[in-house]
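Quick one - first record:
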Amino acid sequence: MGDTVILKRPPVDKLSGIISDFICFKRCLGYKYYTEEGILYNFSVFTINYTVTGYEIPTQMIEDWLSLRKGEKVKTQRTRFNCTLQMLKYARQHGYRVVLPDIPKFHVTEYIPYIFSKREIEKLFYASDNIKPYPGSMRHFTVPVLLRLIYGCGLRASEAANLKASDVDFTLRVITIREGKLKKDRIVPLSDSLAKIMQQYYLRFCQSSESDSYFFKGKYRQKLNRSMIYYWFRYCLEKAGIHHYGKGKGPREHDVRHSFCVHSLQKIQAQGIDLYAFLPVLSAYLGHASIPLFSDLSNNIEKILFSSNYNTIVCNSSFDLEKEIECINTLRTKMVDGLILMPVNFRSPHIEKIRNKIPIIIFDRIIDVNMDVVLNDNKRGGYLAAEHLVKLGHQKIGYIDRYVDHSHSLDRKKGFMDALKNNNLQLSNGFIIRSESFSYRDGYNAMLKLLKQEIKPTAVFAINDIIAIGAIRAIFDSGLRVPEDISVVGYDDIDISDYSLPRLTTIHYPKIKVAKIVCNQLLSRIEKVNEEKPKVTMIEPKLIVRKSTGKVYH
């Protein structure tokens, strides 16, 4: 993570240190942990009345803290129990003597989401469209757009409230959700009708604002909050004649999101598409799962290490050297047992300084330090991509690269160029476009630049799948077809590549195999099973041919 963890309510008394470390640990894993911070602060205050000596946490104190209180809901007790139990497990792993409490059976009535019918959704929209103006309030402008966005894109209310003007791209008709649940970012497409409504709102209220200002404005143009959204939702619910069953019983504004899911599944089923094949896409679309490669890779690594009784802290340097150094320093202060690194630069003196102090595995990068490295054979992958296109008869082939060179992207390009050379072809400078970053939008923009060339390519190889999918969108928006007019090949074989339209031909990155090798090498170094000299392990990629490539017809 690399960021300093600031606690709004720092714990007190003798257990303050271990509680603070635990909260920091959970936030490094991507959890916001605001509610739990409050619970553990209260626990630390509770311990003042008990004798806590050294590393001994009294059993009676824990039992008293976890017992059901007068007037307390069972659900509240369960939340307190689960949070405290996780903290106690963490404390025990760090040398504290504690008897973990038995997990009781909590008889909690779970909330059942209310699924609006399509007719009820129409009534909600009608009610929002007829909100009367009020001095100082923008609700009669904001609520109609806000409700349609939550339903049309399946957003959480907090995600809609946190949306900024700069996160809405009307050219691509997408919005970027930043740091949603578990700090996940995602790209969400807009329908033509929703994009039109949002653009009208933008031109009226956002165009003259700063780019980092919030898209939706509350009273006196302040930022919206969830309680405000809930108040407006209840108002529309009443005006629409939809019964509310009381506090905690719904419908809630979050049920509009649930209704989006159900209506989407109904539509997919009516189209004859396999629901089980569609569910991973819907899950990623809603922010419950991440699509990109390294999220899958880190999840696999975490599962393997957890099975060997090691917890994992995931930090993201965002290809920033200073942040990388800060992340490593932060992890070392936490006394971690080992590091798995994907360094930003080839020259890494900060890694050289610590290589004999802690077990380290480098993966998917080449650096100037002699240590264990696990590499995907990117050069071979680039070669396979070019060879596939050449065999289909393509000679005018475009290449979308990353603006910043890293060892893996350089190797992919080298392999690609070698394959062209071996087939007496070469890549002209006009057919090499560098994208700003690894995003759908940058792939889209890079492809538009290629299409502006006087002689257009008949095929394109993109440095990764996300850029390739963005490129496909640009091709279609330009009135061309894939693969009939232009073939497209990606790299990494992320989950969405098998569900894109058309399904993406790509180079498979064996995530599970890589995760196993990386973890096994790290564990052997930690447990001193492997005392051999550092080695480089090269993993063979594989071409996956799908529907985005075809023979040349012109």
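second record:
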Amino acid sequence: MPWRTLIFVSIFLAFSGASALSKKITSANVSQFRNSAANKNWVCFNDPIGVRRVGVLTSYRSRIRSGESWSEFSAAQTTQKNASVRSALKKIKSSNKKYRELRTQLKSLETLKRTREAAVFNCFSDKIPSTSEFTGQPDSLEPYRDNLTVAEVDHLLSKVAYGGNAELRRIGYKEGLLPLVDALVDGSRFTANANEIESNAQFYEKRELNDSDKFPGLKIWTVQAAVNGALYRMLFSPLPFKEWMTQFWAAHFAVNIDRLDFGFNTYTHLGIPAHVALLRNNALTDFRAMAVGMIDDSAMCTWLNNDDNRVDAPNQNFAREFMELFTLGAVDPITQVPNYGEDSVAAATAFFSGFYEDSRVTEPFKNYSRIVTFDPELHSTATVSVFSGIPNASTTRAFAPAEFANYVLDNHPGSARYIAEKLFAQMVRPDVPASIVGELSQALKKDGFKLPAVLKRILKSNAMFSKEALSVCVRSPVEEMTELVRALTLTPFKTDLNKEQQEAASWMLTNLSYKMSDAGQTIFQPPSVFGWKDACGVNRGGRTARGEGWLTDQAILNRDRGCVAIMNTVPNVLETNLKDQLLPKTLLDWEQAIDIVSRERLRIRLSPQQRGILEKFMSTEWDDNNLEGSRVILSKASPEYMTKKLQRLVCLINGLTSTQMR
């Protein structure tokens, strides 16, 4: 910084009263300082409560060492001084010598403001991809380096774990990539906590069950019960990757459980938890178990009519979607050759035939519950050809239902390729290189469609940490709102709350699901068997999308409304105000509030322009006593003011493009 600018800074600090903030750098705190790369006279300081402050060295030597002095330099000071100068300019004539002096001051203030913005930008640079970050090769599955930067850890957790939690971030920062990936996939570190969260989730599921009129004491499942249980796990589970993958498979094996009319029905209601359990219990472990389990899953059979597929009255719905959507895809992603023809659809229909709707008596209420049962008399035993012309898959024979499902996975070359492409496209980026499809499919087939090794290989790959994997897709509404709530670091709602708190907690979960729905996505309720149209990844027919389906005018508006609703609901559950939840109790400085919300909570880095807009928003307020609507400039905020502004600050930052991408 030039001498004259340094002198002006000193004069400005003294004029604005900031000299009272001048402090000594001591041997105890010198390690908490560093120079800003933007200008050697500016320093960044991590204070004892973890808030970063920006200031200037008051010595011309520009050295950070014990005994030197520094002064915090806030935007409020420049804003107040700027307003004071502008006010004075309005009161004097342009021909006055004082006018020219004030104009010179104003120009210097603008220069100073830009210099400060550059220093601030540099001080928060741990969220910026540097030349040494995200250097992975985009087409490589080889493991990335183990020592991750803060930005790389945050990137991985935001991609596949709703932002993770403090412990997962600690593992990534301190232990490295491999321990973090193991923690995400295996989850063995969190068994005790996971068990407690699961117990709580079941409690909040039960709150949404319905009482049976016919069978006193019987609790009947509703769709909202399944949704609230899933949401509780997504918000609080120490295993967020498991919950993220559960939602991935729910879109893959797409069933709209609301349209089944299973809820509020003593006969069919158990089909809801059974379907969700099939997905969640196998989400990180076994694709084969899910694919084979769908054959007689009550929800899937109702959705695609396989409980009405008999040798004398074939129904092709399930067989067609089993191949096109669940296991093969219409076209091989490597050879671009069709994976099956209409003759194979007819053959698969015969192989999957034989199921019908039955019932069983459920204890202890002696009520009848719907089940799907196989009857050999209704199954086709005809010898037919399937997958003609496809190497290793073409055959002419008869199959039992599960036998055919396993045959498809083990013998058709397109099965593992299809699943490998979908996994990589959703987890990393939609455009999947053929080489990666080939490598992952071989590994998947070698492991018998067990998932852990393949998931770990993707998570720790060079491709995951390449620049091509950064911000490639629009987050789904479920991802965006779930990560927002997790960022608030709420204490999990427990079962020992009083009745009013339990009701508030249940309503928060229910209301959150409504807001997600308003923004275009309802948990466990995709609009069709094809899942969510134009969601991130590989869609029907091999068509790639980057989340364009979430970008309707109304859906974008409702995302912001969803944020506001979350900010309004949280204090009711916790019986605390938002400021105490998000910020240190003694913090009233709005600049530090911007820092904590953006950097510590939402894990993003603001550009100088974005930060400038937010600083202006936080430092000014309408003067209700002035009919012209002038703004009052504030340097420090009262607790009431901070609480009032904080809600919109969170939602403004959350609405930035960078937080909406993954």
